Amino acid sequence: xxxxxxxxxxxxxxxxxxxxxxxxxxxxxxxxxxxxxxxxxxxxxxxxxxxxxxxxxxxxxxxxxxxxxxxxxxxxxxxxxxxxxxxxxxxxxxxxxxxxxxxxxxxxxxxxxxxxxxxxxxxxxxxxxxxxxxxxxxxxxxxxxxxxxxxxxxxxxxxxxxxxxxxxxxxxxxxxxxxxxxxxxxxxxxxxxxxxxxxxxxxxxxxxxxxxxxxxxxxxxxxxxxxxxxxxxxxxxxxxxxxxxxxxxxxx
Length: 252
Hints:
CATH superfamily of the largest domain: Glycogen Phosphorylase B
Helix content: 25-40%
Oligomer: single chain
Shape: globular
Largest sheet: 6 strands, parallel
Order of helices and strands: EEHEHHEEHEHEEHHH
Strand order of the largest sheet: 5-4-3-6-7-8
């Protein structure tokens, strides 16, 4: 399953040809032929498709107390390599503009630096416990996702489960399939981010309802089962696997 940048087509990788040791492949790409040989059955299925909206809901996350509220949340990074994946430079150009022109307050996970200096409307924070970050996100007006190399952005689908719209880089590698008029909007760069993000401040979007109707463990599991049946027709629904990502804090 493709869930790390352009895997299995990585610039630096071991010698194992992963496609030859798999019977099927789950990918996140708009153009899978750029990253996969096409020699085995493949399907547009991401790890984030299995995000459980029963476990991540406004009702359950609300139990984690009252925290300072922000209008937008951006999950940046502390490490240099992660900042590239999270598109720190673009965030540094867009977020101050969003805050200034739309009068918003932002929570940025990461440390202010020369590229992204401190700003009166922005709170920089080190990484927070998963449950606390979800609680902050639940009260946000949108999640800001300038990422490009992100293959399976779990926080994006968690935002949708919390009924929080998303403002996403049009060139994101994975997660693009979750963005539509019901869930949020795409943007290109600082030239149109304010105009497009403003649309997410309207109450007409219904991200949680849309995600429940299209993804989650059961529907994603059904898609995975159909793919697996292409190589083993005797598989039954009872034998279907649940794909989940472990989290450090399992309280939520």
